[in-house]
Known about the structure:
Layout: H1 2-17, E1 36-38, E2 43-45, E3 55-56, E4 59-62, E5 67-70, E6 73-74, E7 79-80, E8 84-88, E9 93-96, E10 110-113, E11 118-121, E12 124-125, E13 128-129, E14 133-137, E15 142-145, E16 159-162, E17 167-170, E18 173-175, E19 178-179, E20 183-187, E21 192-195, E22 209-212, E23 217-220, E24 223-224, E25 226-227, E26 231-235, E27 240-243, E28 257-260, E29 265-268, E30 275-279, E31 284-287, E32 300-303, E33 308-311, E34 323-327, E35 332-335, E36 349-352, E37 356-360, E38 372-376, E39 378-380
Amino acid sequence: MKFRLIxxxxxxxxxxxxxxxxxxxxxxxxxxxxxxxxxxxxWREITNTNAxxxxxxxxxxxxxxEMIVFGGIGGNPYQYLNDGGRYNPSMDRWTTxxxxxxxxxxxxxxxxxxxMEMIIWGGVGDGGSTADGxxxxxxxxxxxxxxxxxxxxxxxxxxxxWTGSEMIVWGGTYLNDAVLNDGxxxxxSTxxxxxxxxxxxxxxxxxxxxxWTGSEMILWGGAGTxxLNDGGRYNPTTNSWxxxxxxxxxxxxxxxxxxxxxxxxxxxxxxxxxGASYEPATNSWxxxxTGNTSDRSDYTMVWTGMDISxxxxxxxxNLHNDGVRxxxxxxxxxxxxxxxxxxxxxxxxxxxxxxEMIVWGGRDSESCLGDGALLRIYYAGYFPWVxx
Length: 388
């Protein structure tokens, strides 16, 4: 009997303690349990067969089964692109996007996933900044141009978030140093735009970070009159803005990024910047712990459901093919594995699949890159019945 109990305990530890909490429909709320996070070295190169040509400044979204890449700059000499591809990691296979009705060639545009379609909007191309876009449906493999009636003015380096029913576009620039502080909401079911109020909106800026909380869009950082570390919250229900506090906010030098954890926005300020966590419930910032961090810009940052993972970029001297991760529960930093990682690069993209981070594209000091790799991340020792 005692031997059976021992076997049963081993079974529980093996199959429950070491299962990935992001799989099987379970969920983890940061801070709700004690976790021991273990990243197993797990880079795997992805196929180049039928992959899009090398590029940087493109966009990539995750559909739930595939990564879709679109646009950017590539070729030799450089040119704006309006092609792309779908990558299925379970099959390690690329499928080329159709060209009929695709948006014009562009970079510095935005892409969001609605649950059914990818929406591309804005950016800059051969004709300057753009004020148009299109929706791509993987099920039908077709593009549908979206209405320009009531759309925001032409811009690039703006932000876009998906609310569950609408895409919200805000800010950006239409010419260098001509920054904007307006925007609009786009409803794909009606193909209709609704302008955002400017009363109470953050000051004009480009390159800001933006997240959707489930009820509000939070904007932070960017470049306007210098590099900014303020922002605002926009509530579509009340159609109103609320400013973010600056006390305790991170400092920004270049390329601010932010992710939403489910309760907090974690923001990072890039080169010579810093990081902090913003909690809307208390309207307050909490600085991230210092540790194994590395100043860089033009990197990627993803939220795994348990931590943030930052990879690649450059520090004004060197390109990187390394990365770090930060756990908001343990308040600690750790390095990502180097074995098998893609070559050093900047202006690439990264998406989180639920179990893996996919890095693709970008450029090095000599050329555009059309390769990538996946990093599988495991979370071990999650025991939801052990409370803090």
